[in-house]
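How a chain folds remains the central question behind the approach discussed here. For one protein, we set the task of working out the structure tokens from the amino acid sequence alone. The sequence in question and its structure tokens are set out directly beneath this paragraph.

_____
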Amino acid sequence: LREELGVVADNLEMIGIFNPFNGVTNEICNVFIAKNINFTDSKPDESEEFEILALSKEQIFEKIASGEIWDGMTIAAFMLFVVKFNGMA
């Protein structure tokens, strides 16, 4: 978290796993929720570029519905969050 986003968390809780391309790869994605976060300096690789957005659950649902958020890994991770917390943050 620190290297990529400049975030330090007091607690990381694993909320689920998924295979992004079942039957083709044996890759497994682990999904965590970071709690009690603090922002510090990030140190991404020179080829990496990030934009941090603070969005409500409703805004995320809207962006998924509109196609603005369309990648499967993000949608799968968000749905694990929704299932784990019954849609409540």
The chain has a mean pLDDT of 89.
